[in-house]
Amino acid sequence: MLTGFEELRIRARSRGPLPVVVAAAQDEEALRAVKAAQDAGLAEPVLVGDETLIRPLLSSVGLPADIRLIHEPEPAPAALAAAKIVSGTEVGILMKGMVNSSDFLRAVLHPECGLRTDRLLCHLAAFEVPGDKKLVFHTDGGMNVAPTLAEKKDIVRSSLRALADLGIDCPKVAVLAANEVVSPKMPATVNAQALMEMNRRGELGPAIVEGPMAMDVALSREAAAHKGIKSRIAGDVDLFVVPGIEAGNILGKALIHCAGAQSAGVILGATRPVVMVSRADSAAAKLNSIALACCLAVGSDSPGQTFL
Ligand code: COD
């Protein structure tokens, strides 16, 4: 169990500093995060982007003028250049700056950038929600738009590998839907049941997977009891599997903006860790994401498998 981002940042310190290459680095919050990560011994920053916009930000965030900076004014080409630099490092991290998510992900997927593997890439978000005793994880609210059942299987398997690298060995996994009744009219419920059966057959990795499950049951043992649902995970879920990108994206932003959650986001399945948070996210969220990427890059208690 990870109690929160402070524990994650402390763990990450023993893994760093790692090269962090920022794509379209003309983003003050990203630069603040990189500076904080450098001060914490997590990052050796490399900036790729519009030098005319980046230079004036350097002194205001406290980064040195002689920092490694590659001038590429257009965001999409900057993402391609940054991805190529990261793939040339042994354990570097790619980080999204002021570039649209789809353009950024196309650079990660570009066959010439060297970050693609034969695995499905997916997004894993972490949240520290005020009042909760542990970090929780959500997938996939950031990359795969409407994953098929086979893709959801890959997404769950990748996320479980990442959680294992973080020392969470038998996570409790809720496959979310609108309710607990399986109905062909609600494909998310059918997929959730299939994923639970895959888990029973041992196809997903060590985990307790339950679904379909509505969010109230996933979050509350009392709600489960009230609905007469027997669950081993209600109120204590580690990983929430959302039905599609919209649900995940809306849920994550609601946690941040309505519940005051802190967040982090990474892409799993590439040859190197990739930090992907929203451009509007705070410097703290970007720092948390660098810490998460550091822990996944080098593994935690056991040698890391996520990015091998
Ligand atoms: N994993 C591995 N390979 C992939 C993946 C994946 N998740 N997605 C696509 N590919 C491969 C395909 O097999 C193909 O070879 C090539 O990449 C191109 O695939 P397309 O045609 O589907 O690619 P695009 O460019 O149309 O779309 C890929 C994106 C990842 C850009 C797209 O799915 C996307 O925009 N996702 C949502 C990103 C987003 O807006 N997130 C919001 C977060 S703030």
Q: What would a concise description of this structure say?
A:
It is built from 11 helices and 11 strands. With 308 residues, the chain is of the alpha/beta class. Strands 3-2-1-4-11-10-5-6-9-7-8 form an 11-stranded mixed sheet, sandwiched between helices.
- Distance between the terminal alpha carbons, to the nearest Å? 23 Å
What is the helix fraction of residues, given as a range?
40-55%
Number of domains: 2
| SS class | alpha/beta
CATH class categorisation of the largest domain = Alpha Beta
Q: How are the strands ordered across the major sheet?
A: 3-2-1-4-11-10-5-6-9-7-8
What integer is the average pLDDT? 94
Textual characterization of the structure:
With 308 residues, this protein is of the alpha/beta class. It has helices spanning 5-13, 28-39, 51-61, 75-87, 101-109, 149-165, 187-200, 215-219, 221-226, 245-259, 283-298, and strands at residues 18-23, 43-49, 68-71, 93-96, 122-128, 136-139, 172-176, 208-213, 239-241, 262-268, 274-275. A hairpin with a 5-residue loop joins strand 10 (262-268) and strand 11 (274-275). Helix 2 (28-39) crosses helix 3 (51-61). Mean pLDDT is 94; it is low at 300-308. It is globular and about 60 Å long. The chain folds into two domains: 5-117 and 270-297, Rossmann fold (3-Layer(aba) Sandwich); 122-262, Isopropylmalate Dehydrogenase. The protein contains eleven helices and eleven strands. Helices cover 41% and strands 18% of the residues. Strands 3-2-1-4-11-10-5-6-9-7-8 form an eleven-stranded mixed sheet, with helices on both faces. Bound molecules: dephospho coenzyme A (COD).
